[in-house]
Write a structure and sequence with these properties.
Elements (H helix, E strand, L loop, with lengths): L2 H24 L8 E9 L3 E10 L5 E6 L9 H12 L3 E6 L16 H8 L9 E7 L1 H9 L9 E7 L5 H8 L5 H19 L8 H5 L4 H13 L4 H8 L12 E6 L7 H8 L6 E6 L21 H13 L2
Parallel strand pairs: 3-4, 3-5, 5-6, 6-7, 7-8
Antiparallel strand pairs: 1-2, 2-4
Amino acid sequence: MGDGKNRVFSFLGHWFTIAPVARHTLAPRRVSASVPFRLTVPDAKYGDIRLSGRLHHAPSETLLVVVHGLGGDVRSHYVLSAARAAEAAGIASLRVNLRGSDRTGEDIYHAAITQDLHATLASADLARYSRILLLGYSLGGHIVLRAATESTLDARVRAVAAVCPPLDLFVGARAIDEPGRLLYRRHVLSAIKEIYTEVAGRRPVPLPLAEARRIATIRDWDEHIVAPRFGFRGADHYYGESSVAPRLATLAVPSLVVAAEHDPMVPAHTLLPVLSGARPPLDVRWIDRGGHVGFPARVDLGFPGPGGLEDQVVAWLRDHAGG
């Protein structure tokens, strides 16, 4: 690709990352009626942890479970787009809040907190569904892929998709902590500090709130907040134990990774060493025009159906789900 074209596509990577967030802030996306989803899971440190979400029922035996990225929640623009795509496909959907992301002060979360996802799938509220599809964005994409490598995966899970997921947490943290990504890093840190502030108001936390608020990098957050909270010896231990990259060969179900060549938050160079040798059941699709979990209105991944990113991904999931 020529330098001029590369600069244009790089600019579009930033545009498609920022513009959907701005647009959603000014005019929030709307979805069909939903009901609250609530669940309590046991935790060795805090006791019972309450989880929440929004459940969209449909006259279908198939359920799409959508997991947001770091700092997001069930109201994030891409999560709502996924719910709309599920509705258009005639299937039910569940938008899941990772623990504490609903700002209730329950707890914080990390990149491999799959136990909450497994507990969610086992909920009595979801017993009616015979086929489950998982769709995660960014860190949520890492979580659903990690879950798909574990023996505790619900047998009803038929296919998994991850959009713009970090795969190697070592290189992912190093990339977003680079000076040129300051804007994005501050945005993410601001959101997870809000979550931490709520937790600090009702539970013991690893670091005093004033010190936590001064943290300026993702690695320092993982070193001083995530690692001690969840029993890791430090950020390197957390990354080594949690990264899904070395586990991808053990995926139990058909899995899709959608990555943007000009993603400014999860750069392509952090994914290429992991994805270049991908083999079934892992399918990889790269998009040249797009940003971090934000894409043009029409995207062609080579799948049938409408051209929106979520419509295409849901089509892939349904095609690989069987039944």
